[in-house]
Amino acid sequence: MTPKTFSTEELTSLKTKMKLWASELGFSMIGIADTELSQAETRLIQWLADGRHGDMHYMAKHGDRRTKPAAIQPGTVRVVSVRMDYLPDSAAPPTTILQDSTKGYVSRYALGRDYHRLIRRRLQKLADLMSEAVGPFRYRAFVDSGPVMEKPLAVKAGLGWLGKHTNLIDKDSGSFFFLGELYTDLPLPLDKEQTDHCGDCSRCMTACPTGAIDKAYQLDARRCIAYLTIELKGSIPEAIRPLIGNRIFGCDDCQLVCPWIRFSKSVSTPDFQPRHSLDNATLASLFSWSESEFNTRLEGSPIRRIGYQRWLRNIAVALGNSSRTTEVLVVLEGKKAVASPMVREHIEWAIARLNDRAAEVD
Length: 362
Ligand code: SF4
Description:
The structure is a single chain. Strands 1-2-7-4 form a four-stranded antiparallel sheet, sandwiched between helices. The chain has a two-stranded parallel ribbon with strand order 3-8. The chain has a two-stranded antiparallel sheet with strand order 5-6. The mean pLDDT is 95. It has two domains: 1-90 and 112-211 and 254-273, NADH Oxidase; 212-253 and 274-357, no CATH class. It is α+β, with helices and mostly antiparallel strands. Helices cover 41% and strands 9% of the residues. Helix 15 (326-335) runs antiparallel to helix 16. It is built from 16 helices and eight strands. The structure holds iron/sulfur cluster.
């Protein structure tokens, strides 16, 4: 398809309409970036060379396709970046759960339904509206679904700045949001980047339970609880297990301590509200789920993709960090029969840790 030529006025008018449509579709913000990502590419190459991506080999596998948008969608000259706030307004307060070692802490983004389909559907509607307005054009939608530098692109599109914790922050809305992208061959007018407002603050670096943010703006995924409880398929390193506390799927600590989250806007979006009391459930009750309960209850949840065994692995670690009660020992023992060898080792570690700590107190 030969790209149609548009005047500056037509493209400016389209961009104005896109902002309106994005808002009607429930996006909190939309911005346009070009595809020049050389700075982000340099940082990515160094991060990979340092091995800080852990087992996420797919990060290296895509080569420069990640930093050259036209390599995965030919003709791309702009990236439309969208943001959707997700902090659920009905969830139990995160600090209350983090301070209660009998409860399991699930990252705020994973309490409800998987966001990918919801955002993809809305991105598609946005592309349809654009097509109706200007005729056919080339595009491809991404929602955490391909080798896309989503955060650097969002920064370029003016959606926020990358904080020292490496998450995107907007000074009017905090950092709890999902991102999506539309790669397009339409040379839309660009947005301006926001300035960095981290200043002298380093709260997120100090607060990280495992010291994963060991340098400002750099994350060692191998120590990050989100990586250890979601991406890592194998055994969680023993030295890190006590530091994980009761975080069973992801971690929000670096965002929770950030001064900018006071501007977060919680949302009533039904899909993002907690399901099956995931915001306030006891570790023992979650650990008691059978595999079929796990599969049924977490249908349509981002948690389901880690599978039952990794779910048990994560909760076993958290139970090992809780208090030794008869109920906890019974549920741990009770799962040995269905646990894989890797998970069984985590259960034994948890029981031994509970016994050791009880012996220290006696
Ligand atoms: S806690 Fe401080 S340093 Fe970290 S991202 Fe927020 S403002 Fe930046």
